[in-house]
Specification:
The complex is a heterodimer. By secondary structure, chain A is an all-beta fold. Chain A has one domain: OB fold (Dihydrolipoamide Acetyltransferase, E2P). Helices cover 0% and strands 55% of the residues of chain A. Chain A contains no helices and 8 strands. In chain A, the strands form 2 sheets. Chain A has a 4-stranded antiparallel sheet with strand order 1-8-6-3, with no helix packed on it. In chain A, strands 5-4-2-7 form a 4-stranded antiparallel sheet, with no helix packed on it. Chain A is elongated, with a radius of gyration of 11 Å. Chain B is mainly alpha-helical. Helices cover 68% and strands 2% of the residues of chain B. Chain B is globular, with a radius of gyration of 21 Å. Classes of the chains: A mainly beta, B mainly alpha. At the A-B interface, strand 5 of A face helix 18 and helix 19 of B.
C-alpha cells in the first residue's frame, strides 16, 4: 500500500488532534489544528485512507517539515 | 421623577429601529458566525447604543448650538464623540494601531518571496478605479480620494486620509472600511471564484518558504521606512509607526514593548475604534444618500481591488515558470490577516494539500504598505 506523509506546513502549536491510529479518513478531513500567527489552522487529509501513525499531540510545539501523521491508502 | 416622559421611547424613529436591526445583524455575524468578532462586536454594539435616542454619546456643540451627532469643526460633548475627536480626528488612534500592527506582522513571507510585493501594489488599482468612479458621480476630488482608499481595506489608513481630505465623510468611510474588512469572508470568495478556474484554485504551492535571517528581519523595517518615506513623505506617520512596531518585535531586545503594542495597546485601541465607528452609524448620519453612496462605492473599491489582485497574479503566471496560485493576489488588499485567511481556506477547499497562508501573507502585508503609500500619494497631491 502507498503511504502519504502529512507534514507540518507552518511552525506553531498543536491545539487539537482529531484522529487516532486506525481511523479511516476521507480526503479533506481534519487531522489536527495548529495555532500559528494567532490563527487556528486546520490540517487536512490530502488523501483518503487509514491513519497508521500520529507523531504529534495536543499542546506540542511543531516546526514546519515535522511529520504529523502517516496515511496508508 | 419617574414616568414615560423621561424615557427615550417617544424619540425612537423608524431610522433608529432600522439601524438597531443592522447593529443586531453585525452582532449576530460576530458572535454566532464568528466573523471578525473583535471588530464586529464593538461596532455592532456601538450601532445599537447610538441609536437609542437621548443618550448623547456622540453629541457636540457647534456655533453654540448643541447637536445630537458629532459635528466636524464643533466641540465634542458626548463621551464617545470626545474619544472620536481626540483619538481619531487628532489621528492618535490610527497611528498607534499601525504600531501594534507592525508588532504583530511577520515580514518573513514578504522578504522570502519579494515578488509578492507586486501583488500588494496591484491590488491598489481598485483604490484608483473607485476614485475615478466617485469623481464621475460628482464627488469632489478630495472626497473621491477618501472613498477610493476604502478599496485598500485598511481602516486606520482610511480614517487618517479622510480626516485630512474630507472630514465630513469620516463616519461613512470609516464605517464602510471596517464593515468591508469584517465582511472579507463573504465579499471576496465569490469574486475570486468568478475570476479563477477550479484548476487555477487547485495550483499547489510548497508550504515552506526559504528561511529568513534575523539580520534581514531587522534591516527590512529600517530600509523600508527610509525608502518609502523618502518616496512618499506624507506616508511617514503610518509607515513610520508600522515599521517601528515591527522593529520592536524583531530586534530581540524590546520584547516587552512589542508584546504590549501587539496585545494590550492593540486591544484597547480596537475597542475604542470599534465603538467609535459603530457610534457613527446613527440613523440621521447613516441613512442619507451621500453616506449610502459612499458605502456603495466602498464595495466597488474593495471588489475591484480584489479583482485586480487576482488578475495581476494570473498575469504573473504567464511570465513565470513556477506558477503561483492566483488566489493569493486577492490577499493584496490589506485586511490583515482576514484576506490571507480567506485565501488559505479556499486553497484548502480546492486542494487539501494546499497551505497558502504564508504565501498569502506576503501580498497581504505588501497591501498594508501599498495602501498607506497610496494614502500618502493622495495627501501629497491633494492635502
Amino acid at each position: 500500500m502507498a503511504q502519504e506523509i502529512v507534514e507540518v506546513p507552518i511552525t506553531g502549536k498543536v491545539i487539537s488532534v482529531e484522529v487516532k491510529v486506525g481511523d479511516e479518513v476521507q480526503e479533506g478531513d481534519v487531522i489536527c489544528v495548529i495555532e500559528s500567527m494567532k490563527m487556528e489552522n486546520p490540517i487536512l487529509a490530502p488523501v483518503a485512507g487509514k491513519i497508521t501513525e500520529i507523531k504529534v499531540s495536543t499542546e506540542q510545539t511543531v516546526e514546519s517539515g515535522n511529520t504529523i501523521a502517516i496515511i496508508e491508502y | 421623577m419617574f414616568g414615560l416622559y423621561e424615557s427615550a421611547f417617544g424619540a425612537l424613529t423608524w431610522g433608529n429601529i432600522v439601524m438597531i436591526i443592522i447593529g443586531g445583524i453585525l452582532l449576530y455575524l460576530g458572535i454566532s458566525r464568528k466573523m471578525e468578532p473583535l471588530l464586529l462586536v464593538p461596532i455592532g454594539f456601538g450601532v445599537i447604543l447610538v441609536n437609542l435616542p437621548l443618550g448623547e454619546l456622540m453629541s457636540s456643540v457647534i456655533n453654540g448650538q448643541p447637536v445630537e451627532s458629532y459635528a466636524v469643526g464643533g466641540e465634542p460633548t458626548g463621551v464617545i464623540s470626545r474619544i472620536f475627536h481626540y483619538g481619531l480626528a487628532w489621528e492618535i488612534i490610527p497611528v498607534f494601531i499601525f504600531l501594534g500592527l507592525g508588532a504583530m506582522t511577520d515580514f518573513g513571507p514578504l522578504i522570502a518571496n519579494p515578488k509578492t510585493l507586486i501583488l500588494g501594489a496591484g491590488a491598489q488599482f481598485g483604490v484608483y478605479f473607485a476614485f475615478f468612479i466617485a469623481l464621475l458621480l460628482g464627488f469632489t476630488i478630495t472626497e473621491a480620494a477618501s472613498i477610493g482608499i476604502i478599496g485598500g481595506a485598511d481602516g486606520p489608513t482610511t480614517i487618517y486620509l479622510t480626516n485630512r481630505l474630507a472630514p465630513h465623510f469620516i463616519g461613512a468611510t470609516a464605517v464602510a472600511a471596517y464593515t468591508y474588512m469584517a465582511l472579507v469572508p463573504i465579499i471576496q470568495p465569490p469574486i475570486i471564484k468568478l475570476l479563477t478556474t477550479k484548476q487555477e484554485r487547485e495550483i499547489f504551492m510548497k508550504p515552506q518558504l526559504r528561511p529568513v535571517s534575523n539580520t534581514e528581519k531587522i534591516l527590512f523595517p529600517l530600509i523600508a521606512a527610509v525608502v518609502i518615506i523618502l518616496l512618499v513623505p506624507k506616508s511617514a506617520p503610518l509607515i513610520g509607526m508600522f515599521m517601528l512596531g515591527n522593529l520592536l518585535a524583531v530586534s530581540g531586545v524590546t520584547d516587552r514593548l512589542a508584546e504590549s503594542a501587539a496585545n494590550a495597546l492593540m486591544n484597547v485601541l480596537t475597542v475604542l475604534l470599534g465603538l467609535c465607528v459603530g457610534c457613527f452609524m446613527s440613523a440621521d448620519n447613516f441613512l442619507k444618500l451621500d453616506s449610502l453612496l459612499v458605502f456603495a462605492l466602498g464595495i466597488v473599491a474593495f471588489a475591484t481591488s480584489t479583482a485586480f489582485g487576482v488578475g495581476l497574479a494570473k498575469l504573473m503566471n504567464l511570465f513565470t515558470k513556477e506558477k503561483i496560485n492566483p488566489m493569493i493576489g486577492a490577499a493584496g488588499v490589506s485586511a490583515v490577516p482576514m484576506a490571507a485567511r480567506v485565501v488559505q481556506r479556499m486553497g484548502q477547499q480546492a486542494n487539501p494539500r494546499n497551505f497558502l497562508l504564508m504565501h498569502a501573507m506576503g501580498p497581504n502585508i505588501a497591501g498594508v504598505i501599498g495602501t498607506a503609500t497610496a494614502a500618502g500619494i493622495f495627501l501629497g497631491m491633494l492635502g
